[in-house]
Amino acid sequence: LHDGGGGEEARDGGGGEDEDEEESDAAKMKKLQAMVTGFVRQMVAGSAITFLKQGAGDETSARRVPATFKLDKTLSSASVQGEDMSLGLGLADIEDIYNMDEDCQEVFPKWVVSALSAEEQSRLLMIFYTDAPVSRSFCILEGSVEARKRFQECLKVLCVYAQNGPPTAK
After folding, report:
1. How far apart are alpha carbons 141 and 148 in whole angstroms?
2. Is residue 66 within 8 Å of residue 74, measured between CB atoms?
3. Are strands 85-90 and 94-99 parallel, antiparallel or unpaired?
4. Is the pLDDT of residue 43 over 80?
5. pTM of the model
6. Residue 59 main-chain phi, psi, to 5 deg
7. Whole-angstrom Cα distance, residue 23 to residue 29?
8. Cα dist from 91 to 16, 67, 129, 170, whole Å
């Protein structure tokens, strides 16, 4: 792919700007593919998360339920399994994934926001999905901010894949 020559031309402004952009895009795509591949391996095996349930009879508390988020091997559905709870959903049914750093606090249930520390809010994700005929959501905490960012980015990629099929060659 690279013959070792021509490096001077790109640095001297010989039309290399578009090539640099393409290389940058290709490098970003390769990095994203590696991240998603690692994410898939981890999630097919199952990954520990904290599922948030509204406190019984209390509109301002959240019960933290240790749970496992798992993808099926066909990458078409996911499940959340925890003590006294189980949730299954198709990846194509996921509408959006919100986090407190990028989305306004108002999209999150008040009982979730009021029950979490600032540090926990930075690890919070809310997943909206369709359970025909209604839209539903649930909230989870990832182990770290980096894990939350990775989870959100990779799951969004897998949802697009589930909704649209594999990318076609250009």
Report:
1. 8
2. no
3. unpaired
4. yes
5. 0.79
6. -80, 0
7. 10
8. 40, 18, 9, 25
